[in-house]
Amino acid sequence: MRYALLVQGGPYSRQAAHSALRFGEAAIARGHRLETVFFYHDGVYNAARLAAPPQDEPHLVDRFRALHDNHGTQLKVCIAAGLRRGLLDEREAARHGKQGHSLEAPFELTGLGQLIDAGLSHDRLITFSP
Amino acid sequence: MHDDSMKGEVLVILRHAPHGSSWLREGLDAALVAAAFGRRVTLLFVGEGVTALVAGQAAGALGQKGTQPTLEMLAMYDIDTLLVDCQALDERGLGTADLLLPVTTLAPPELAATLAAHPLVLNF
User: Fold this and answer.
1) Is B75 in the A-facing interface, judged by CB distances under 8 Å?
2) Any catalytic annotation for residue A15?
3) Cα A127 from chain centroid?
4) In chain A, N or C terminus with fewer CB closer than 10 Å?
């Protein structure tokens, strides 16, 4: 089956992102395809480039990145929710006159229309909310 | 069940009150975008979400944008199927006369059928 996940919980503070990762990895292990993860609401913080968790905790950003690198999963971040919360790629950082950027590939800023498309074009969209 | 509730492609469930979090605003944003992309959108207000429809949701001391202007724009986006969990209204001492927009009230068994009738359900 072709899956999309919607992640709406921030990393570490809520269970949602951990559960989404575990679900995604398990689905892939069962032979399904995890084509898209869409980050919205506080879920956008899962794309923070500078996340530096302690070494004895799962590195959520790296785990999401690995889904992309190993399985081609697209990691899409709502641009409106991201900008409000300080998640900007290089282009948006320049556009808004910011010195650094906080989001980079394979995470990509995209519109909410992509969430609607993902929901209607995949076999399943599973939501992980706090 | 009300016929209109069967027609939508995207069901957006709103479970949160206007202030205290951005759930309602970001949920409404998703509904507007879906409609702007030509999808038929149904809104379903449940639990605390029913308070979003009470008139006068202006910007206040919290500094959040009010949601009433967004709700008033729904018709422009052809979002005219607004469903409300009637039990949630009753529990809060509200009736349809207290609400800003015309709605269709649903009893609990109809809620399940509404979910089943929509290919995409987004829960905020």
Assistant:
1) no
2) no
3) 12
4) N
State the catalytic residue, choosing from A77, A78, A109, A115.
A78
List all residues 6 or more positions away from A108 whose beta carbon is below 8 Å from its beta carbon.
A74, A75, A76, A77, A89
Tell me which residue in B26, B37, B120 faces A113 most closely, judged by beta carbons.
B37
pLDDT tens string B81-116: 999 999 999 999 999 999 999 999 999 999 999 999
Task: Check if the beta carbon of residue A57 is closer than 8 Å to that of residue A69.
Answer: no
One-letter amino acid for residue A92 of the chain: E
Residue B51: domain span = 3-123
Question: What is the reported pLDDT for B63?
Answer: 78
- Whether the pLDDT of residue B6 is over 80: the answer is no
Distance between CA atoms of B79 and B9, rounded to whole angstroms? 12
Which pLDDT does position B2 carry in this prediction? 46
Distance (Å, rounded) from C-alpha B7 to C-alpha B77? 16
ipTM score over 0.90, yes or no: yes
* For residue B3, pLDDT beyond 70: no
Domain at B108, CATH number: 3.40.1260.10
Number of domains chain A is built from: 1
CATH number at residue A79: 3.40.1260.10
Average pLDDT, chain B: 91
Q: Is the pLDDT of residue B123 over 70?
A: yes
Q: Do A40 and B120 touch (CB under 8 A)?
A: no
Domain carrying residue A115: 2-128
How many domains is chain B partitioned into structurally? Answer: 1
CB B23 within 8 A of CB B64: no
